[in-house]
Structure formats: structure tokens, C-alpha cells
Design brief:
This protein is of the alpha/beta class. It contains twelve helices and seven strands.
């Protein structure tokens, strides 16, 4: 069981480290100078090794494995760490991950997905990484009750908490009641930026309103900090949702003074996964 105090506990978590060097450098700066308290690494991505070296050299920062089963980008592709022959249901004709959750759900076999996710964790461990938790890119694990169960089993196998959230499940269209159990560790309130706010230029206000109205319990804000460089523009071409400009705004807000002031003014306590696990009874 996990019993959280009446305090406003907040984890500001940076997804997608390893996606690009721009993502890596922004994540590092957000950890060192901003309010970000946790991040997770995408093992299959080309720039994973750069961020892994940072993690090894800076163990004081909390990090997990961003388990990856999809690749949404138009011109930037990656695939499983296992060979396509070992996990044929996870890849397209070119050996890359499927581009969205719908295609993944249609084609993927649960046993192959679990095998690939285990291989990603093992690859990180073989480098000497000591992750604090597991989470999932695009929350693709929430495409079936069987896959959610496999995801939770990986947490048990490696003795790591897994990110479970009713809000995330609803976001990807999955009914939480079919997959959650009474003793699961759940995020009480999880927030992800919404495209409507970005499109209208109100993304930073969206984040500020969350901080001003935060409730007690285990809160999490998922962000994707990166610099709006040529590299990120190329990766996110024709994909403004969580695109390069959006990621720059994430970086700016969560390293800025307004964010720090609101956290202090609203009596919010920043936490990592390691802190959260101390609440286990």
C-alpha cells in the first residue's frame, strides 16, 4: 500500500530523453537549473547512449526507462533493440516500430511486446544504469489489459514501480477499471499539455493554472523539453503536437522563474520516484 500525506507532492517528469541530442541537452539543463525532478530514457533511439552517459555520471538525478513500442515521426525512424525476426509483429516492412497506437494494437502480439520491453530494460542494465522506475512512450502499453498486465509484471520482475494513471489510460482510450488492482501505485493527478492550449499560445498559462490549483496527493506533470533547433524541427516535421516549438516552450516554462515562484507560493513539494517509494507502508 502507498499512503501519501496531505501535502501537494509534485513530480515534474521529462519524457523522451535519448530521442535526440537536442532533447538530451534540454533535459540536462532542466534537471540542473530548472524544476524537473525525473526523466526517462528511450533505449532504442540513436541518442540514447549520450543520455545514458549523463545518467551514469550524475546518479543524483532520478531516471527511468521510457519503454518504447511506437515511432510516430515522418522522417525519423527507429525500431526494436531485438532483431525484426524476433519480434515481427512489432515492426513495419522496413523494420521500424509502427507509427501509432492503432497500428500497434492491430498488429502486435503481447508476448513479443513483453520480450522487446524486457530487452530494452536489459540493455540499460547492461550499461550499468540503475533506473528508478518504468514508464512508456505514447503509453502504448494501455492498448489491452493483457499488455498492461505484462507491463506490471516487468515492474515486479525488475523490482521497479511502473507509471500507472487513470488519466493516461483515458487519454489513450483505455478503460482503467479492466486493468487496475487495489494495491497498484497510482498517480493521483496526472497532467499532460493539450494541443488546444499550444495552438492558441496558452501552453504556459495552462501549466501555471495547474500549479495554482494543485490538489494534495501524488501529482505529476509530463513534459518533453527540447531546444527548437534544426534537428528537432526535422524530427517533428508535420507533427506540431508535441513538436519542436512545443518542446522549447516546455523547456522555457519549467526552467523559468514563474514556475519556481508558483511552486513556492502554492506550497508544492517537488519529489522524485525515489521519494514516492518512501511512502510505501
Amino acid at each position: 500500500m502507498y499512503e501519501f500525506s496531505n501535502d501537494k507532492l509534485l513530480m515534474i517528469h521529462a519524457d523522451d530523453a535519448g530521442l535526440s541530442t537536442s532533447e538530451n541537452q534540454a533535459t540536462i539543463e532542466a534537471l540542473q537549473t530548472g524544476s524537473v525532478t525525473s526523466y526517462s530514457l528511450m533505449v532504442p533511439c540513436p541518442w540514447f547512449y549520450e543520455m545514458a552517459q549523463f545518467a551514469l555520471a550524475n546518479p543524483e538525478f532520478d531516471y527511468g526507462i521510457h519503454l518504447t513500442l511506437t515511432c510516430e515521426w515522418k522522417n525519423y525512424k527507429f525500431g526494436p533493440v531485438l532483431s525484426k525476426e524476433q519480434v515481427p509483429s512489432l515492426v513495419d516492412k522496413n523494420g521500424h516500430f509502427q507509427k501509432n497506437r492503432a497500428l500497434f494494437q492491430e498488429k502486435a502480439r503481447v508476448e513479443e511486446a513483453e520480450k522487446e520491453l524486457s530487452a530494452q530494460i536489459e540493455k540499460a542494465l547492461d550499461l550499468g544504469l540503475k533506473p528508478s522506475h518504468l514508464d512508456c512512450h505514447m503509453y502504448s502499453v494501455a492498448t489491452s489489459a493483457e499488455l498492461i498486465s505484462a507491463y506490471k509484471n516487468l515492474g515486479k520482475k525488475y523490482d521497479l514501480p511502473v507509471l500507472l494513471s487513470k488519466e493516461l489510460m483515458a487519454f489513450v482510450g483505455f478503460g482503467a477499471e479492466t486493468a487496475l488492482e487495489d494495491d497498484d501505485l497510482l498517480v493521483d493527478h496526472l497532467y499532460v499539455g493539450e494541443y488546444q492550449y499550444f495552438e492558441k499560445g496558452n501552453l504556459k498559462k495552462f501549466y501555471g493554472d495547474i500549479l495554482d490549483n494543485m490538489e494534495a496527493g501524488f501529482n505529476m506533470i509530463l513534459i518533453h523539453p527540447a531546444f527548437d533547433t534544426h534537428e528537432m524541427k526535422s524530427i517533428t516535421e508535420d507533427h506540431p503536437n508535441f513538436g519542436s516549438e512545443w518542446r522549447q516552450q516546455d523547456f522555457e516554462y519549467f526552467t523559468g522563474q514563474e514556475c519556481k515562484s508558483k511552486i513556492k507560493e502554492n506550497g508544492i513539494q517537488l519529489v522524485s520516484w525515489k521519494d514516492i517509494m518512501s511512502y510505501k507502508t
